[in-house]
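2024-03-11 09:14:02 INFO receiving multi-entity request
2024-03-11 09:14:02 INFO entity count = two
2024-03-11 09:14:03 INFO echoing inputs for audit
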Amino acid sequence: MSALLELHSVSVTLRNVAALDGVSLCVSPGEIVALLGPNGAGKTTLMRAATGAVRHEGRVALSGADPRMLSARQRALRVAYLPQRPQSIWPVSVESLVALGRYAHGAAPDRLSPRDQAAVDAAIEACSLTALRTRRMDEVSGGEKARAHLARALAQQAPLLMLDEPTAGLDPAQALGVAEILRKHAANGGGVLLSTHDIALAASAADRVLLLRQGRAIAEGAPIEALTPAALESAYGRTGALMRVGESYVAAFH
Amino acid sequence: MSLRISLALAALGIAALTAAVWLGPTPLADPFANDEATRTIVWDIRFPRALTAWIVGAALGLSGAALQGLLRNPLADSGVLGLSGFAALGAVVAFAFGVALLASLAALAFALIAAFAVTTLGWSARGPASLALIGVGISSLAGGLIALALNLAPNPGALADLVNWTLGSVEARSLNDALLAGAFLLAGGALIFFAARGLQALTLGEEAAAAIGADLPRTRLLVVLGAAACAGGATAVAGVIGFVGVAAPHLVRAFAGHDPARLLLPSALAGGAILVLADMAVRLLPTDTELKLGVAAALIGGPVFALIAARLASRGGDA
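2024-03-11 09:21:47 INFO inference complete, emitting structure
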């Protein structure tokens, strides 16, 4: 099966600074890949290059196609992208927000076909928002907002989910809930690319990690193999270690 | 829900139009009486005036709702953002240089310039206040340029009326004026209608709207053209009338919710009803010289605008 996302020697220059420098990455169906690295390492820039939102050198392919040659709608059918700090500018209901995920399928939040409605219902259920679906976005908590935005991305039903720090601001139980949702998406044949600062969560949830520093890839592979103390120190500038504890991982720095 | 609110607002508009035909400085026992005087008062004076007010109000309400959706900002409207000021400038330039026939086209062209400028400058404005400030700049520029046009005009004396006209009024407007503003409203409304889904998508902010598949350049172009047509037509016929575009969507949100697409039609209908009622009020006020509608709108709308802005600011500034 062909890759959902391929980056080959991709470089991005923002304001004369190399934000991404010759990075290659592949996300295949059934796979969860986590982007790790300190703030400013290039995680968000990589995602923006993947959607064609920033000018890049090198080759980017979304399900085989150059994202810059695709219309916004065609891109949205290939990748559901959740930006960092997602916004809900107008306080619409949780359900209306999730329904915006059906935009590329031709639906408006107040005119959903049975298929659109089923996708919205499934996304709302997957994110445990059933009880909140009629609540306004300004009446729900930060964690609930984050889940509503994740549900919007799920409702898009694109093969690739690309999430920029989806667990920021979530408590540990909610973060694990997100990881379970991502695993389910991968188990159903989808692919996931997420960025996170939660190294332990990435190690538990992801099949592979890509560790970035100053726009360059410094380690890639299965989490426990790639995230060696040397790689962590090189990325974060602190002595760190990833340890296995039962079914999950703990990351510690000092 | 949205349909029921639209029907209620349409009924309110019709009631307001009927009342505006009936009520006035000269009391009429029966506005549908078949004598010459009544016919003249009703069909040559009051009805065209009230209809013009409704169309101008609807155009301002619609352009306000569309601009608010596009710029993700509840303080946006064609008056605040300078579209009306620039449209007035266009009309003044046309009059001042003896091409009065082209006044409405000039108003449209100048409104377009302002719309492009303000949406380009304000596209990534952070928070409602910074966009309003960009609007202040553009409006002030329009004011300055109107003064300059009067300054340089070949026959400034004859232009005193024109300055008076820019204050905003629907007094003594004919059915032709109503038709002109109506044609601009229809054209602008059609353009904005095609942008409605894009406005909905912008609820998620610019980046996520693009991510769900919205064609943002198209949405932006449609709204800029549509809002400029609405504001240009309204201003060409009635001068500058501010704040209807802020007030109408603001009032409608309380009943119709916040979805920017579902606010468009109710905002237009509310704007129409508001302006007919406001015009009726200025006609019925026992003043020696009739208060200008634009002046009345500013007297009521200014404080309302300040209150909305203050409420937004107290919520942290970012709507």
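2024-03-11 09:21:48 INFO post-check: The two ends of chain A are 42 Å apart (CA to CA).
2024-03-11 09:21:48 INFO post-check: DSSP finds nine helices and eleven strands in chain A.
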